[in-house]
Design brief:
Blueprint (H helix, E strand, L loop, with lengths): L1 H16 L1 H4 L7 H30 L8 H25 L5 H14 L9
Length: about 120
């Protein structure tokens, strides 16, 4: 949450500072696009947080935290689940580039020679 708020503040400062140079955002439908991003980010937060809380509840509800290998496993699952929810919501909301974002992990893995990519 802190990183997201800092990014929004940074974006706002830069947008205001460079508005004379870059101009104002006049793309038709930019309000709709911004709404889609907000909804997708809320979905990402809900899914990632839910997966993390599930991991805590399953592994050790008495201590309310995870450590070591379990933490790595559940953090990875939380990130993957949140990303999948984010991409799916962007696609459902017809956000431009949502499909490309969904294909990005596979393209990266192929680039490294995993899942049929070139090696060497």
């Amino acid at each position: 949450l802190g990183t997201s708020i800092a990014a929004l503040v940074n974006f706002s400062i830069l947008r205001i500072s460079f508005s004379r140079l870059a101009g104002t955002p006049r793309k038709p439908g930019w309000h709709r696009d911004m709404g889609a991003l907000v909804l997708a980010n809320l979905g990402l937060a809900a899914v990632a947080g839910g997966i993390w809380r599930l991991g805590v509840a399953v592994h050790d509800p008495a201590f309310d935290h995870l450590a070591g290998g379990w933490a790595v496993l559940w953090l990875t699952a939380s990130i993957a689940g949140g990303f999948a929810a984010y991409v799916q919501l962007l696609q459902w909301l017809r956000y431009p580039g949502g499909e490309d974002l969904g294909q990005l992990p596979l393209r990266i893995l192929r680039r490294f020679g995993i899942f049929g990519g070139r090696r060497g």
